[in-house]
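ugh ok fine here u go
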Amino acid sequence: MTNIKLREFVKANLSLKESRLWYIPYRKNFFKKVDEVNRCNSIITDDLYTFNIALALRKEIYFLETVRLNFRLELFKKGDVFRVPKHLI
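structure:
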């Protein structure tokens, strides 16, 4: 997350126990992206691509809904969806 306001939203609204925020860079190579996501215990993302990779790897996911989606995300009790206010984007 490069948006500083969005980082502050995450720190204020998510209680992350003994964890650090680590930025996963964008990768064009699918396998490198999967390796990066697999290194983490829980994922905080606003990207559906990363969301689906983390879901397949059975990671704990916190999805930041920055754009209103016209479908419901299923997390299989492994995370939560947070609506981000427009003024933070």
